[in-house]
Amino acid sequence: MLSLGEGWTPLHHALRLGRRIGCQNTYLKDESLNPTGSFKARGLCIAVSRACELGATAVAIPSAGNAAGAMAAYAAVAALPAHIFMPIDVPQPFVAECRVLGAKVTLVDGLITDCAAKVREGAVEGWFDMSTLREPYRVEGKKTMGYELVEQLDWRLPDVIIYPTGGGTGLIGMWKGLR
Ligand SMILES: Cc1ncc(COP(=O)(O)O)c(C=O)c1O
Predict the structure, then answer these.
(1) CA 40 to ligand 1 centroid distance, Å
(2) Which residues make Cβ contacts (< 8 Å) with residue 102, sequence separation at least 6?
(3) Which domain holds residue 147?
């Protein structure tokens, strides 16, 4: 399995924030400490690893930033060609990060859905399609957020997890892990 040291991020007891919102037991899990700066590393680590095991010769993803950077990093470790499609207005650092990691970045004059359509066209040529929920392995990688939360809370479940959702892989992964 590929690895860049993803996961096992710190859980901070946010005392002052907790006091302000009336919940003493408020904790923040700092996912920015993952190798590519976001929790996307957890899912793409597993997905690129599995793509390699299955014999993929190239990987591709539509992304507005974080997922692309993560896929590019693991594809670089695996020496797999990476094709990334991003909306033309994504912040430049995301584009630069992917290119520095050796990925081929195409900027699309459109939305993320237009980028996804380009990946699907390429998938016909044999690219492994890493789009959100189009393959099952990214979700598996996200389970570790749930496992870690419980372990860091001395094997107790939190009452509530507040989590930012886009495509939903993190939410589904944590739910699967906690179940
Ligand atoms: C920092 C960050 N948090 C949360 C999300 C939501 O992702 P998902 O719903 O796929 O877990 C994204 C994805 O765009 C992200 O980049």
Answers:
(1) 7
(2) 72, 75, 76, 82
(3) 11-37+138-178
What's the domain count of the chain? 2
Predicted local distance difference test score (pLDDT) of residue 172: 97
Rounded to an integer, what distance in angstroms lies between the CA atom of residue 144 and that of residue 137?
A: 13
pLDDT at 122 over 90: no
38 in contact with ligand 1, CB cutoff 6 A: yes
User: Under 8 Å CB-to-CB from 155, ≥6 apart: which residues?
Assistant: none
**pTM > 0.90:** yes
- The answer to whether 82 touches 57, Cβ cutoff 8 Å, is no
Q: What is the pLDDT of residue 95?
A: 98
Q: Average pLDDT for residues 51-60, to the nearest whole number?
A: 96
Q: Residue 2 falls within a domain, yes or no?
A: no
